[in-house]
Write a structure and sequence with these properties.
The complex is a heterotrimer of chains A (276), B (305) and C (314).
Chain A (H helix, E strand, L loop, with lengths): L1 E2 L16 H21 L2 H22 L9 H36 L2 H5 L5 H30 L2 H31 L3 H17 L10 H12 L10 H4 L4 H25 L7
Chain B lengths: L2 E10 L2 E11 L2 E7 L5 H8 L7 E6 L2 E2 L3 H4 L2 E4 L11 H11 L4 H14 L15 H13 L5 E5 L7 H16 L3 E6 L2 H5 L4 E6 L2 E7 H7 L5 E7 L2 H8 L5 E7 L2 E6 L2 H15 L3 E6 L4 H12 L1
Parallel strand pairs in B: 3-8, 3-9, 6-7, 7-8
Antiparallel strand pairs in B: 1-2, 1-4, 4-5, 9-10, 11-13, 11-14, 12-13
Helix pairs in contact in B: 3-4, 3-5, 4-5
Chain C lengths: L20 H14 L2 H26 L4 H10 L11 H10 L1 H21 L3 H5 L5 H19 L1 H13 L5 H5 L2 H28 L2 H26 L9 H19 L17 H35 L1
Helix pairs in contact in C: 1-7, 2-5, 2-8, 4-10, 4-12, 5-7, 5-10, 5-11, 7-10, 8-10, 10-11, 10-12, 10-13, 12-13
């Protein structure tokens, strides 16, 4: 056994901390606020405004042009805006902007190292990251959703309450899933982009049960079910075979919970060798 | 507090990072010395709990290095140049103190102490993104010290710092050591470690090839040949005279230069000086070819194989 | 100590023009891309579409499929059942269908090939050589253009080769010689526009996430919106909002020019050889050309300013 010769020892000066739990809580809340602030004041916030403002302009145009939603139907608003633009693009992009960078950004910038050598358990670090991301994405998605519904007029106001739950669940599912990507893959943004723009489209439009892998399928199923009373119908019930709103909601919550548990587990056990 | 490596092996897939390393590092400064790729960073990562050993155990005091409990006693200054660039140095160190669980007031106080230790109090309000390399090194050191941890791991802490700064940081580390802290400083520059401590760990090819004081390590090298290049006006004649010296193993003639290999550099240089003076050789240049760290590791590695 | 004493000698050979450095920039970019597994996944996904088109061409040329079914099958992929003509839309459709994968690949490449140079201050490594910012910009544009071509132009040309090889004579290639020329021209337009936009965006945004958000907004959201607006308003000019459509319109102009070059005569209802549906679409293509030229000009000016700024600061 090799042994380094020590220089004469002096009395160790113990750091002055509070009680264990309180100290940990203080560290954790600091991390939560740090993560939230860094995400909020990032370039991503500015860039995500581009699609959000784009959608708002689109709705304003549609409402005040001659082919307005007012005379149109709830179905047109639901299909053309809610399903094909908002939940298929805006929600995943907002989730991607923050969920992949909350951990992935720290990995990319190699600042994650400074967090991993602090006396906070890894699973709590991840939980802080998740809880910093979630209100940000939910706030952005739900606020923009509310604004869009106001812009769309009476139909939108009705749609807001009908689609609030599916939008909430979908956002939760995407945020959880993208966190899983972030702790698993180095280039999580691209994996999330491939998943949300390519795989979801590909899987969601496949016949049979394959489409049940896609988050978007459950979101659409919920929307078709909840909007059914207002005349919304799935494009081809024989082919799309939607599940009930209850089933879809449970599935989305299940996906979220499963993804969060897996994320916590992977982050707790994984070595990030690319940090130094 | 002790930093203990107990039969530690770390694999990166099929590649071995460190191989069956065992050592106990106690209070004081210990230099971890090795060439690039020798396994220094792997040891640092294992000690700071970024990596888990494939075999064996790394402990900080009584806790495994991977656990969060161990990190309470640990300050780590990594060998990377990444920070939260948008923050000022003071903010960064403050946040790191807060992440250790200190109250706001304590964190502020500890931040000022740490910045003072690294001589960054006046420059602490600069954005890190706009700081020089040396200032960034000092900030990195400050964040490691802010918690006043009993164990300090410093990966190449002197890189990019001017000679005056190195002296200051050296003094700081000596002060810390005198307060009973366990400090492991990695470096691939022997002089850097030599000026701080006598206690070194030498690592090569993932193994600890030597440990102890510098003189003990140098004694290990006594039976290794030492190469000297001499450029002179009468090379052939000098070669003939040198080969007669008992300490000389071989002499190679390369134009006007001679490559001399010897086992006892101390007595060789004495005899060589006598020869030059007595025979009036004009020596244009005399340089040792293998006193660098790489050559030392090469010898040690060969010895350990 | 003199310079000879440290055995340093300057380059004594004859240096070639700095434009040759562009080839090195492309080579390094390709190495950077292809050593990452994630890129191979994206490229693999891009191959799915190629295999689909390849299979369709193979099926209709090799199997005895009833004429009606053959028409439907080929029609769904833009080809005409007449092998001697009307194939252009098939190649246009193939290149268009690669859009999502090309978009994802470029979102990925932007931060790696360009953003990283700015983020990690590696631009001075390029600019401290004999090359200046013009060579750097052209090198990076060519690198991105090569990536685009690998997913669009090259497979489209392979499909053309395949179509001809599975027929029993050389007639297909002889009758459609202008098609590969038009494919290459369309590919050049696509590569140029996408590389100029991507390199500019990446130079400013640098990190992967903001590039991905902006890039996908440009190419997915605008596409969805323009489709809806043009359908609802019954005004197809809204399609001009979609950059992919604009590129496709200009691509059609390339195929149209190819037909004109080949000296083919178009008459009556088929005034545009079946490439453009009507005069409106032809006019829209000219507008699309104008839009793309304007956007690229603005982007190049912004890019040059960005690279110049870095040069001064560093």
């Amino acid at each position: 056994m090799a042994s380094a010769t020590p220089t004469p020892a002096a009395a160790t000066v113990a750091p002055q901390f509070g009680a264990g739990g309180v100290r940990l809580f203080r560290a954790w809340t600091t991390l939560l606020m740090l993560s939230f602030n860094r995400l909020f004041w990032s370039m991503n916030t500015l860039m995500v405004l581009f699609p959000l403002v784009g959608c708002a302009l689109f709705l304003v145009w549609r409402r005040y042009d001659r082919w307005t939603f007012a005379e149109g139907s709830f179905r047109a608003f639901s299909e053309e805006f809610m399903i094909f633009l908002f939940t298929s693009f805006v929600v995943p992009v907002c989730a991607l902007a923050y969920a992949t960078t909350s951990v992935g950004g720290d990995r990319e910038d190699r600042t994650l190292l400074f967090l991993l050598v602090r006396p906070v358990p890894r699973w709590l670090i991840l939980l802080a990251k998740l809880l910093a991301t979630l209100p940000l994405v939910l706030g952005l998605v739900l606020t923009s959703f509310w604004v869009y519904c106001r812009l769309a007029g009476p139909i939108g106001e009705k749609a807001f309450w009908i689609y609030l739950t599916p939008v909430f669940y979908m956002t939760l599912a995407y945020v959880s899933l993208f966190h899983l990507f972030a702790v698993t893959f180095r280039h999580s943004t691209i994996v999330a982009l491939i998943y949300s723009l390519f795989m979801e489209f590909l899987l969601g439009n496949m016949p049979g049960l394959v489409k049940r892998i896609a988050v978007n399928f459950y979101g659409r199923s919920m929307m078709y079910d909840l909007g059914g009373a207002e005349g919304l119908r799935s494009p081809d019930p024989e082919w799309f075979v939607p599940v009930s709103a209850w089933g879809a909601g449970c599935s989305l919550l299940g996906i979220s919970a499963g993804a969060i548990v897996l994320t916590l587990l992977i982050f707790s056990l994984r070595e990030y060798r690319d940090l130094t | 507090m002790l930093l203990v490596f107990d039969r530690v092996t770390k694999f990166y897939g099929p590649v071995i990072g460190v191989n069956n390393i065992s050592c106990r590092i106690g209070p004081g400064i210990t230099g971890l010395f090795g060439a690039n790729g020798a396994g220094k960073s792997t040891m640092m990562k294992l000690a700071s709990g970024q990596l888990r050993p494939s075999q064996g155990e790394v402990r900080v005091g009584e806790d495994r290095a991977w656990s969060s409990a161990a990190k309470r006693n640990l300050g780590f200054s990594p060998d990377i140049n990444s920070f939260y660039e948008e923050m000022t140095g003071r903010e960064f160190v403050y946040v790191m103190a807060r992440l250790c669980g200190h109250t706001r007031r304590d964190a502020r106080r500890l931040t000022e102490i740490a910045l003072e230790e690294v001589d960054m109090v006046d420059r602490g309000d600069r954005r890190i993104g706009g700081c020089s390399h040396g200032m960034r090194q000092r900030i990195k050191l400050a964040q490691a010290l802010v918690n006043d941890p009993p164990v300090l791991l410093l990966d190449e802490p002197m890189t990019g710092i001017d000679p005056g700064g190195r002296r200051d940081i050296g003094r700081l580390l000596v002060r810390m050591a005198e307060r009973g802290k366990t400090i492991l400083v990695s470096s691939h520059i022997l002089n850097e470690v030599e000026s701080l401590t006598d206690s070194i760990l030498m690592i090569a090819a993932g193994r600890i090839v030597a440990s102890g004081t510098l003189s003990e390590v140098r004694n290990l090298l006594d039976d290794q040949p030492f190469t000297v290049e001499i450029t002179t006006d009468r090379a052939r004649e000098m070669a003939a005279r040198l080969i007669g010296i008992p300490e000389v193993l071989s002499v190679e003639l390369r134009g006007e230069s001679l490559i001399v290999r010897t086992l006892s550099p101390g007595s060789f240089f004495g005899r060589c000086a006598d020869l030059v003076l007595s025979e009036q050789f004009v020596v244009h240049r005399l340089q040792t070819l293998d006193t660098g760290a790489d050559a030392v590791f090469g010898y040690l590695q060969q010895g350990s194989a | 100590m003199g310079i000879d004493n440290v055995r340093y000698h300057g380059w004594e050979g004859e240096l070639r023009t700095p434009w040759v450095a562009c080839a090195a920039i492309i080579r390094v970019a390709m190495l950077q891309v292809f050593r990452r597994k994630s890129y191979w996944v994206v490229i693999g996904l891009g191959l799915l579409n190629f295999l689909l088109f390849w299979s369709i061409i193979y099926a209709v040329t090799q199997f005895d499929i009833p004429r009606d079914d053959q028409d439907k099958l080929l029609g769904a992929f833009g080809f005409s059942s007449e092998a001697s003509g009307g194939q252009e839309n098939g190649y246009i459709m193939f290149m268009q269908r690669q859009s999502i994968i090309v978009m994802i690949l470029l979102a990925f490449s932007g931060s790696l090939l360009v953003g990283a140079d700015f983020r990690f201050n590696s631009l001075p490594f390029y600019l401290s050589r004999r090359i200046d910012r013009r060579h750097y910009i052209v090198g990076k544009l060519l690198a991105v253009g090569t990536l685009v071509s690998l997913l669009t132009t090259v497979p489209a040309l392979l499909l053309f080769l395949e179509y001809g090889m599975f027929t029993s004579s050389l007639d297909y290639w002889r009758d459609n010689w202008q098609t590969p020329v038009a494919v290459i021209a369309y590919g050049l337009v696509m590569s140029t526009v996408l590389s100029v936009l991507l390199v500019t965006l990446s130079a400013y945004l640098q990190k992967m996430a903001p590039i991905a958000i902006t890039w996908s907004s440009l190419f997915v959201m605008l596409s969805t919106m323009s489709g809806q607006l043009s359908r609802r308003a019954a005004d197809r000019n809204w399609h001009l909002l979609d950059p992919w459509r604009d590129i496709r319109y200009v691509g059609k102009l390339c195929f149209y020019a190819g037909k004109r070059l080949a000296g083919e005569v178009s008459q009556g209802a088929n005034a545009y050889y079946g490439i453009f549906a009507n005069d409106d679409e032809f006019r829209r293509s000219l507008w699309a050309l104008l839009i793309l030229v304007s956007v690229c000009t603005v982007a190049i000016v912004a890019l040059v300013r960005r690279v110049r700024a870095v040069e001064i600061v560093n």
